[in-house]
Amino acid sequence: MFTLYHHGSSVCAAKVRFAMAEKGLDWEGVYIDILKGEQFNPDYMKLNPKAVVPTLTHDDTVIVDSTVIVEYLDQIAPDTSVHPTDPAQRAQARYWTKAVDEDLHPACGAVTFVCSHRHTVLKNLGADGVKKFLEATPAMSVTSNWKDLKDGYTRYGFDAPGAAEKVKLYDSYLAKMEAALDGRPEGGLEGGNDRGNNWLVGNAFSIADIAMTPYVNRLAMMSMRGMWENGRLPNVEKWFARIEALPNFKTCLIDWVPEDLTNDLRDNGAQSWPDIAKILEIEI
Ligand SMILES: N[C@@H](CCC(=O)N[C@@H](CS)C(=O)NCC(=O)O)C(=O)O
């Protein structure tokens, strides 16, 4: 039996829910509210010492880290693999998942806290609660220095050191998607094949699309579609419309987000949009 420890605000958990749905795997859920600090419960930290979601248990086996979880599931259920079979395309897909884990995910954590979560935790937890919440974060968490970073993003918002760079880094991944969907070499500006690829790798839906979906959706939920709409990144716009039309999108990416959090992401994000647009030199 699969048990997934997850939360509606977690992009990594959304990735696993989406992959499991695409693979047709059933699971039971344990909901860990990471904005209330439930990830710091000592029993949960026995499963996941970094105090992050998701965690998957498969009978007695415990697997952490969303990409590793999806790779594990593909070994368990190879018939519904979400990885390309062609070795070169598999390597391409691996570049995407590696970049997401190393680069995009920490940038998303920063941007989400700066634009929305800081307002949610400040509103819901009160001064003492916020202090406890920030102190409880282990040094090695989302990143090896997440405790200090999260503290800075929560207290200072856009004025936290490095916040604007994280916005630009996030945006650079949308540009890489635009290039890949245009058939250009990853991140390249020239030399497209004009195929107008539907999907990120080999023009077939894969783990690369699953891995990027929660990060594009996070921006959409934060009222930031202006990062790709209005002609800025037309391939990304079409790709996301294709993703949103998939039957598993709403159930995995939208329905698990509680209504108050959905509202916070939308409203706090909308208030932060002028700052984001200024950093990215988007006219609004
Ligand atoms: N490398 C991990 C990262 C997991 C992670 O960063 N989870 C975030 C939510 S997406 C979390 O639980 N954060 C808790 C916190 O910020 O205290 C994975 O891919 O699963």
Automatic annotation (TrEMBL):
Top-rank EC class of the record's enzyme: transferase
Gene3D superfamilies, per the entry: 1.20.1050.10, Glutaredoxin (3.40.30.10)
The keyword DNA-binding is annotated on this UniProt entry: no
UniProtKB keywords: Transferase
Domain GST N-terminal: start-end pairs: 1-81
UniProt-recorded Gene Ontology molecular function terms: transferase activity
Record domain GST C-terminal: where: 86-276
InterPro entries per UniProt: Glutathione-S-Trfase_C-like, Glutathione-S-Trfase_C_sf, Glutathione_S-Trfase, Glutathione_S-Trfase_N, Thioredoxin-like_sf
Cited PROSITE patterns: GST_CTER, GST_NTER
Entry EC no(s): 2.5.1.-
Transferase is among the record's keywords: yes
A Pfam family hit: GST_N_2
Protein name per UniProt: Tetrachloro-P-hydroquinone reductive dehalogenase
Lineage per the UniProt record: Bacteria, Pseudomonadati, Pseudomonadota, Alphaproteobacteria, Rhodobacterales
Gene that encodes the chain: pcpC
